[in-house]
Amino acid sequence: MPICAEPYLEMAQALGCSEDQVIACLQRMAGHGRLSRIGPVFEHRRAGASTLAALAVPAERLQQVAERISQYPEVNHNYAREHHYNLWFVLTGPDRPHLQRILDELQADTGLTPLDLPMLTAYRIDLGFALGDAP
Question: Catalyzes what (predicted)?
Answer without folding.
Answer: siroheme + 2 H(+) = 12,18-didecarboxysiroheme + 2 CO2
